[in-house]
Amino acid sequence: MLRSGVASLLRQAGTHKSGVHAAAITTSAASQSLSWFADVPTAPKDPILGITEAFLANTRPDKINLGVGAYRDDDSKPVVLNVVREAEARIAGSLFMEYLPIGGLKAFNDLSIKLAFGEDADCIKEGRVAAVQSLSGTGSCRLMAEFMARYMPGAKIWIPKPTWSNHHNIWKDAGVKEAIYKYYKPETRGLDQEGLLEDLSTAQPGDVVLLHACAHNPTGVDPTVDQWQEISKLMKEKKLFPFFDMAYQGFASGDCTRDAQAIRTFLADGHQLGCSQSYAKNMGLYGQRTGCFSLITASPQETASVESQMKAIARPMYSNPPLHGALLVKEILGDAALKQQWYDEVKGMADRIITMRALLRKNLEDLGNPLPWNHVTEQIGMFCFSGISPEQVDRLAAEHAIFMTRNGRISMAGVTTKNVDRLAQALHQVTTA
Ligand SMILES: Cc1ncc(COP(=O)(O)O)c(C=O)c1O
C-alpha cells in the first residue's frame, strides 16, 4: 500500500474526481510518505548523457570522451567561433528583448532557406517555401512530426537504420507510425544502397522518408551523388515525400553548398520536400536552440496555409522561439564579409576532423592492426562508426578510460593530435587481445 501513489489510492477509492477528497488524501498522504507521483517509474537514462557521467566520474587524467556530438578544438576545449563573437559585439546593446513572432525572425528564416536550397532557388523566388524558426534541429523534427500527424494522416515516417536515436522518440511522441529502412552495411562499413532502395520501394505513396542531408549520424556514411540520384528517382516514382534533417551543413565537407547537394538534387528532380536546419554544430550555437523548419509547397497560397498551420502547432507548444541565436545567424548570413568568415571557420572545424580521421587510420595501420580501417577516412562528418563491438567499447572504458556509445560510434570531434596515439593504441589492444 505504501508503495502505491495517491493517484492509484484515489482510483481504488473511486474518489479521483473530487478535489476535496484529493486534497484531504494528499495532506494525510504526506504524513504516510505517499505522493501523487509514487507510481511514476524512472525513465531510462539517455545513453549519451550516461557516457558523460561515466567520463566525469573517472579520475584518470588522460581520460577521453568520444561520446558527445559537440565540436572540440585540438586542446579538447569547446569552441565559440570568432564570427559569432563578432556578431555578438555588433548586436550588443542594440538588441531588444521583446518576444519574437510565433514563426520567429523573418529575416533569419529567409536567409536560412537560401542557405539550404540555394540563393537562386526557384522554390524561394516563386514563394513556395513555408518556413518558421524552430528550437534547433530537434524542434524542427518535432514540428514536422506534429505536422504529419495533423495534415498527412496515415503517412508513415521511414527512418534509416541506424539513426540519431531521438528520431524514434520524436515521431513516436507525435503519434506517427514509423517504418525502418536499411542504410548501413556492417560488412563494408558503408552504405547498403540495395537494401535502402529495396525497403523504400515497399513504402506507400504519401509516406515520408527521413534522410540525413549530410554527415549521417551515427555512421558518417553518406550516399554518393549517383546514389542520391537513384534515391530521388525512386522516391519520385513511388510518390514519397522527402524530409531532410540537416544538422551538419558545412561540417561534412567543409563546404556548405557541397553539403546541401543532396537537397539540391531532389529540388532539381522537382520534389516538394521538407527540411530541418540546425545551427548547433556548424555555428557552435548548441545551447541557443537556433534552427529553421521549412516545407516546399506548390503555390504561394499553399505556403500561406502551411505556414499558418506550422505556427498553430508551435503556439501551444512553446509560444515563440528564442531571440539571441536568430539575431546572431541573421547578422552572420546577412553580411557578406561575416558569411565568408563563417564559411572559413566551418571549414577549419571540418578540416580538423578530416585530419584526425587520417591520423587515426595511419596510427592503427602503423601498429599493424589486422582489421581494415579505410572506413575511418571514407566516412564523413562528426562521427566515425568504428565497427567495434559493445564488449570492446566496454573494455575501452574500463581499461583505457576512453568513452563512447556502445554501438562503437566515435565522436571524431573529441580526437586531437594529443590523444590520437593513445586512442589508436587502445583500439589496437581491444581489437587484437
Ligand atoms: C541527425 C541529427 N538531427 C538532429 C539533431 C539535433 O540537434 P539540435 O537539436 O541540437 O540542433 C542532431 C544532434 O545530434 C543530429 O545528429
Automatic annotation (TrEMBL):
It comes from the Eukaryota. Its cofactor is pyridoxal 5'-phosphate. Its EC number is 2.6.1.1. Residues 62-427 form the Aminotransferase class I/classII large domain. Keywords: Aminotransferase, Pyridoxal phosphate, Transferase. It catalyses: L-aspartate + 2-oxoglutarate = oxaloacetate + L-glutamate. InterPro entries: Aminotransferase_I/II_large, Asp_trans, PyrdxlP-dep_Trfase, PyrdxlP-dep_Trfase_major, PyrdxlP-dep_Trfase_small. Belongs to the class-I pyridoxal-phosphate-dependent aminotransferase family. This is aspartate transaminase. One of its GO terms (biological process) is amino acid metabolic process.
